[in-house]
Design a protein that fits this description.
This protein is of the alpha+beta class. It contains 31 helices and 24 strands. The strands form 5 sheets. Strands 1, 2, 3, 4, 5, 6, 7, 8 and 11 form a 9-stranded antiparallel β-sheet that branches. Strands 16-18-15-19-20-14-21-22-23 form a 9-stranded mixed β-sheet, with helices on both faces. The radius of gyration is 43 Å and the shape is elongated.
Length: about 850
């Protein structure tokens, strides 16, 4: 076909097509109203379908709460894995789930009852995936339900968006200190009583490929356009600058090459646009792994006006920690009192829908990388300073079975007196410098426990503490339970209680009394099977014999004729007395005295007598321990809830022996409570100051108390200046079983024994600079370890000032002496001096003729 015929044939076809297009356009214009309605109906139907499907998908959610241990310290790799796991969980819904519903929510919630609760809300199909976290055993994952909140009077809302260039990143925040710390500080002073609530929801969704491709193309296009604009700007500058202008003239003068060259014409060439580096322009958008869409919603509420708004401002400031090339900024704007944003209508409805359903509608800058959000993808770590809320550790109130521990200053600047529950506080160790508040804190404990109806024994080697606490114990419900065993008296008319360590009137097993006394001597004197086997054997047999005598005296209704520890001398050195005493023994026991005792050298007997002579050299101790029947009975004090105050004369070698007798008797009495049902074993506390003076290398009594007496209702509170001077067994047992650990300032070596129990929290350097009355302490509350926290030691006057009854102190002392059967020192001294004759008289009248051989006359 010829060319001109083809052209003629095509013209009518083109004209017809043009006419058809024009007709179509006219029809569209003529029916535009109906077409618009149809399009709107289609879009509305599509949106309705999307909403219904989104609502259905988002209603099937699983809620998990992550609770970290105090030692939780994740690394960057664990956080990355957790972030990728969350992204996969977001897309794990049914195939028909709309894009906006493919999300996972990290909810950070604080309501004044918990410092910061970390929850994950994801599709129900992701439950098995999220149940196991990359954080391992240091994060406990608990199944929980949806958040159900009451209505608050004042609610404010905010949406945080990423501001900056599309590929720019947030600041890389280190993991130590915890990136959540600013947020924790922002919500630390929430008041649950005022209905305060603060929540931050971080919604994550996988990045759509087509959306990411569009964003990359847009970013590259903007970068190229920017490069062309810069090139045109540079060209205009070169053309507009005359050759004889001042800048050009100065340039030629400063360039030596211009001096050698003659005048020449200038040729201006248009600069080419700079080359656009794809990696630099796209930034975080260049790589898809770890890239997510993110929206951050914040809501604060309170029943008090103004508190929610102030809280929202503090949370916004806390998010500045991420500010870098890109930053988190609040969506909306304000002009004076006028504010446009998600907290105002009509935008509030959109926010509420996103909040309630976790619908993903991120703003234009809602792209982030997992690395940028690392601080939000984990619970608070060990590097975080969490506030101590009242729900975690109660505030002390009299009569509520609480023990005051110390004054804690909260984030709002107010102090409250921290307390632990009586049943949670088993054993306690206090360490630190002398005069820094250890004893005062123990006195406050003891007074509170007494008013709680509990029994206790307070051993005070200094003798001043009873005068300090007496005015606070002089109450009707306490005074009848107080007993005073004061060995610091001096005058003949001073009242003194007495205690026969061999007294058998309570019906205790003989072997238990023997073992308690012998182990007390061995522990205080360092005797053992290697160091002093003969002295240990002689003392055991002597105590065993005197206990048998006392058992016989009690059975004969003659308790006033019982032997005391000071009759050991007569038993070992007086053949006549020994002959009488052996009549109370069985044949096997007499056999040792007749066959083995004579073979012991005199030095072995003197080894036993020396500590007894030192005890008897003190007239007060001689009077207290030399009477046959006394009012000191630790088992009775335990069972009746007595408040026993014991004041030894000091902490010297002889005094240590006396205290050792008391502590070993405490262990014996505690173990003897096996005969009581567990429900009837009343709790009893034993406060022991100056542990170093008691603990010896060969003594394990303190370790045994902490290891064995918990189940028998016994508690131990120990105070010492230097933990490292305690024996390894005692130190290990105390630290292992301590419910409370506290330390004041001191040497680094001493402090390290306590701070080593708080790894990566408080160091010896932190404690060394503490002021007087200041402590670091950790506690056990409701079975959970709390702290360490800085506290100010409590004082009697500020805690129990309203309880002071100075006018009743005299009556209290009178009752306290009566409860220990106290008598004037002169009276008891006379009784102690005559006791050997009283025992001899009893043995003489009760002895039956035997063929006992008089053993050991050489010791007379």
């Amino acid at each position: 076909m010829e060319p001109h015929l083809t052209a003629v044939a095509v013209l009518p076809m083109g004209a017809a097509l043009w006419e058809g297009l024009v007709a179509l356009a006219r029809w569209i214009v003529a029916n535009s109203w109906w077409l618009a309605l149809l399009a709107a109906a289609v879009l509305a139907g599509w949106e309705y379908l999307q909403r219904r499907l989104s609502t259905q998908a988002l209603s099937r959610r699983t809620c998990l709460q992550l609770e970290p241990t105090p030692a939780f310290e994740p690394d960057a790799e664990q956080i990355w894995r957790q972030g990728m796991q969350l992204v996969r969980a977001a897309g794990s819904g049914p195939w028909w789930t709309p894009r906006r519903a493919r999300s996972v929510r990290v909810r950070l919630r604080a309501d004044g009852e918990r410092p910061l609760v970390y929850r994950i809300e994801a599709p129900a199909t992701a439950h098995a995936l999220l149940k196991q976290t990359p954080y391992g055993a240091r994060v406990e994952v608990k199944q929980t339900g949806p958040v159900a909140d009451k209505q608050r009077a004042h609610v404010v809302r905010a949406v945080l968006t990423l501001h900056g260039e599309p590929g720019s990143r947030l600041r890389e925040v280190p993991l130590d200190p915890d990136p959540l710390q600013p947020l924790i500080d922002a919500v630390t002073d929430l008041n649950s009583g005022l209905g305060d609530l603060a929540e931050v929801c971080v919604d994550l969704s996988p990045a759509p490929r087509w959306h990411l491709a569009v964003r990359r193309m847009q970013a590259m296009q903007r970068a190229r356009e920017q490069a062309r604009r810069e090139a045109r700007r540079e060209a205009r500058w070169q053309v507009s600058e005359p050759a004889d202008s001042l800048p050009a003239s100065l340039g030629r003068l400063l360039d030596p090459a211009e001096w050698q060259s003659g005048p020449r014409g200038q040729v201006v060439m248009s600069p080419r646009p700079r080359r656009v580096d794809r990696e630099v322009v796209l930034g975080k958008l260049a790589h898809s792994p770890g890239l997510v869409r993110v929206q951050i919603l914040v809501r604060c509420a309170s029943d008090a006006a103004g508190r929610a708004e102030a809280r929202l401002a503090r949370i916004g400031a806390a998010m500045d920690v991420y500010a870098g090339p890109s930053r988190l900024a609040t969506l909306g704007w304000s002009a004076g009192p006028l504010r446009i944003g998600p907290d105002r209508r009509p935008w509030r409805r959109r926010f509420d829908e996103q909040w309630a359903m976790a619908v993903m509608r991120p703003a234009r800058g809602g792209w982030a990388h997992i690395d940028e959000l690392a601080g939000l993808l984990k619970p608070p770590t060990a590097a975080a300073r969490l506030p101590l809320l009242e729900t975690e550790m109660p505030t002390y109130a009299l009569g509520e079975n609480l023990l005051p521990q110390g004054w804690y200053r909260g984030a709002d600047g107010r102090e409250r007196l921290l307390a632990t529950y009586e049943d949670d506080t088993l054993f306690e160790v206090q360490s630190g410098k002398a005069g820094w508040g250890k004893t005062m804190r123990a006195q406050v404990h003891a007074v509170a426990s007494a008013h709680n109806g509990r029994g206790l024994a307070f051993v005070d080697p200094h003798g001043d503490s009873f005068a300090d606490v007496a005015r606070y114990l002089a109450h009707e419900d306490v005074i009848d339970r107080v007993a005073l065993f004061d060995l610091t008296v001096r005058g003949d008319g001073d009242m003194l209680g007495c205690w026969n360590v061999l007294d058998m009137t309570a019906g205790q097993p003989a072997h238990e009394v023997t073992a308690s006394v012998v182990e007390a001597f061995a522990g205080a004197l360092g005797w053992g099977d290697v160091t002093a086997p003969r002295a240990l054997t002689i003392l055991t047999k002597a105590v065993e014999a005197l206990v048998a005598v006392n058992t016989q005296a009690v059975q004969a209704q003659a308790p006033q004729q019982q032997a005391t520890i000071f009759q050991v001398r007569a038993l070992l050195t007086d053949p006549t007395f020994r002959h009488l005493a052996l009549s109370a023994l069985d044949a096997e026991a007499r056999h040792w005295w007749t066959r083995s005792f004579p073979d012991f050298p005199r030095e072995a007997v003197l080894t036993v007598l020396n500590p007894l002579e030192r005890l008897g050299a003190n007239p007060v101790v001689r009077a207290a321990l030399g009477c046959p029947v006394g009012g000191y009975d630790i088992r009775r004090a335990m069972d009746e809830g007595r408040v026993l105050w014991i004041c030894p004369p000091g902490t010297g070698p002889t005094d240590r022996l006396l205290i050792s007798l008391m502590v070993h008797d405490f262990l014996r009495a505690g173990l003897s409570r096996r005969d009581l049902p567990e429900a009837k074993r009343r709790a009893f506390r034993f406060y022991l100051d100056e542990l170093i003076s008691l603990d010896q290398g060969s003594s394990t009594v303190l370790a045994e108390i902490t290891e064995q007496l918990r189940k028998f209702g016994c508690r131990l509170h120990g105070m010492t200046q230097l933990m490292h001077r305690l024996s390894p067994a005692t130190r290990s047992a105390l630290l292992q079983n301590a419910s409370c650990l506290s330390t004041t300032a001191g040497s680094a070596e001493a402090i390290a024994q306590i701070t080593s129990q708080w790894p990566d929290t408080v160091t010896a350097r932190d404690v060394a600079g503490l002021e007087r009355w200041r402590h670091y302490a950790s506690f056990t509350v409701a079975g959970k370890r709390t702290g360490p926290v800085p506290i100010r030691g409590p004082e009697l006057t500020e805690v129990f000032g309203d309880l002071a009854r100075p006018g009743q102190v005299a009556a209290l002392r009178k009752t306290a002496h009566a409860n220990t059967a106290a008598q004037p020192l002169a009276v008891l001294s006379a009784v102690a001096l005559r006791q050997e004759e009283a025992v001899r008289a009893f043995l003489t009248t009760s002895t039956t003729p035997t063929d006992t051989h008089d053993a050991g006359e050489q010791y007379a």
